């Protein structure tokens, strides 16, 4: 089945999070406005045809009412029950959001960021949150956060594999509020208070480098990045660019349609750009609907933190020989989530599709293998243009 731009819903892929928070859980998501009925758990007697979970919750509720010496907060208990139930699916990308969390998740996906202003990587298996880079003019930069800092506590709560998703979301919050972070830097541990503010985010960094080579770094694929990419490309071309480096190292994804829109600037009209398969084996095939505007040699830089929408982007360009892929094997996140809003404003994000490259190469748990594998030196303390071996190899290739 083909799907055109007019029929697309927002698909989002995220790993590196701006805690502004360009939040994410290395995830590809379809954002839709589905409304699903939700109801409170009621006390139900056994033997009336109810499900096991309803009976168990009703029994626990009765015991707590009879025995617990404190007051019961029904709303909080219901939210935690649902979170635990959804977590029991065992899929790291399937998450229940309270109404407040859902509002933040949706705003983040659409490019409306409130937070402390960092790019960060969440490792769900190890239960760690690592600062990739504080954003310019951000509260995080003002508070002294640095690249490589480990966030080990949020408001006094230690981060573990069991709560890392919750903690990464907790770093976000309402504008003007304070979050207290426990930071581990090398062997030193300390706390820092950071104010949450509305963050103006640029998704693109670009410049001209030697021999009329244009360099464009795509930091994420969140809302608006395709328009920003086109503006930067056209500006660099007007300055004499004859070839192009697109850097998506560390880019954990974003809105899939944004990646598709940039692919349409490069790939031939009618080309298959993405193949998605649902649980029943039904395929959705996305094809380019626009004539390409970029007609110069391209190198794409990738690494182990290039994930999801980044892998869609690199995979299509590799399949069609539209770019030389340089760097290291990508992350291998080839599934898409759908973000659904429930009737009470809460939300559910769950894995609904797996995707592959136009040549039907598997991405999930595999990743994209570069055409040219180049590692960064292990002893680099601060990456510069001169010691960036991957960038230098890209320049050499385009020369």
CATH superfamily of the domain at 204-332 and 358-398, by name, is 2-enoyl-CoA Hydratase, Chain A, domain 1
Helix share, percent: 10-25%
Mean pLDDT: 85
How many strands, what sense, and barrel or not for the largest sheet? 9 strands, mixed
Distance between the termini: 41 Å
Under the CATH scheme, the architecture of the domain at 204-332 and 358-398 is Alpha-Beta Complex
Q: In the CATH hierarchy, what is the class of the domain at 204-332 and 358-398? A: Alpha Beta
Can you tell me the residue ranges where pLDDT is under 50 for at least 5 consecutive residues? 1-27, 32-47
Percent of residues in β-strands: 25-35%
User: What class would the helix/strand composition place it in?
Assistant: alpha+beta
How many DSSP E strands? Answer: 24
The helix count comes to: 9
What does this protein look like?
The protein contains nine helices and 24 strands. It has a domain at 204-332 and 358-398: Alpha-Beta Complex (2-enoyl-CoA Hydratase, Chain A, domain 1), CATH 3.90.226.10. It starts with a strand and ends with a helix. Helix 6 (225-238) runs parallel beside helix 7. It is globular, with a radius of gyration of 23 Å. Strands 1, 2, 4, 5, 17, 18, 19, 22 and 23 form a nine-stranded mixed sheet that branches. Residues 1-27 and 32-47 have low confidence and may be disordered. The protein has helices at residues 52-67, 74-87, 99-109, 139-142, 164-170, 225-238, 256-263, 309-319, 389-398, and strands at residues 2-3, 10-14, 16-18, 27-31, 95-97, 113-115, 118-123, 128-134, 150-154, 157-158, 178-185, 188-195, 197-199, 204-209, 213-218, 243-247, 254-255, 272-278, 283-287, 298-302, 324-327, 335-341, 347-356, 372-373. The chain has 399 residues and is α+β, with helices and mostly antiparallel strands.
């Amino acid at each position: 089945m083909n799907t055109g731009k007019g029929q697309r819903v927002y698909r989002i892929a995220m790993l590196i999070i701006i805690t502004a928070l360009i939040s994410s859980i290395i995830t590809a998501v379809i954002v839709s406005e589905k409304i699903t009925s939700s109801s409170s758990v009621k006390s139900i007697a056994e033997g009336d045809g109810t499900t096991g979970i309803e009976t168990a919750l009703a029994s626990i509720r009765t015991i707590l009412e009879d025995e617990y010496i404190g007051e019961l907060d029904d709303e909080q208990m219901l939210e935690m029950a649902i979170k635990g139930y959804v977590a029991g699916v065992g899929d790291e990308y399937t998450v229940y959001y309270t109404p407040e969390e859902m509002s933040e998740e949706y705003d983040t996906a659409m490019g409306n960021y409130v937070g402390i202003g960092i790019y960060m990587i969440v490792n769900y298996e190890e239960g760690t949150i690592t600062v990739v880079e504080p954003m310019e003019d951000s509260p995080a930069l003002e508070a002294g956060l640095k690249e490589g800092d480990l966030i080990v506590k949020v408001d006094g709560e230690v981060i573990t594999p069991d709560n890392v998703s919750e903690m990464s979301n907790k770093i976000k919050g309402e504008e003007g509020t304070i979050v207290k972070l426990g930071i581990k830097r090398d062997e030193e541990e300390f706390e820092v208070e950071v104010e949450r503010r509305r963050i103006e985010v640029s998704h693109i960094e670009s410049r001209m480098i030697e021999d009329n080579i244009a360099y464009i770094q795509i930091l994420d694929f969140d809302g608006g990045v395709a328009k920003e990419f086109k503006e930067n490309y056209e500006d660099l071309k007007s300055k004499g660019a004859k070839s192009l480096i697109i850097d998506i190292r560390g880019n954990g994804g974003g809105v899939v349609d944004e990646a598709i829109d940039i692919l349409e600037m490069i790939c031939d009209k009618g080309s298959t750009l993405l193949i998605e398969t649902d649980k029943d084996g039904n395929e959705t095939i996305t094809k380019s609907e626009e004539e390409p505007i970029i007609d110069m040699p391209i190198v794409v830089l990738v690494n182990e933190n290039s994930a999801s929408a980044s892998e869609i982007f690199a995979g299509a360009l590799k399949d069609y020989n539209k770019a030389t892929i340089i760097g290291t094997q990508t992350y291998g996140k080839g599934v898409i989530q759908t973000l659904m809003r429930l009737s009470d404003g809460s939300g559910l994000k769950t894995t609904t599709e797996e995707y592959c490259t136009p040549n039907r190469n598997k991405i999930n748990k595999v990743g994209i293998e570069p055409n040219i594998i180049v590692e960064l030196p292990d002893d680099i303390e601060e990456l510069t243009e001169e010691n960036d071996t991957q960038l230098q190899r890209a320049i050499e290739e385009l020369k």
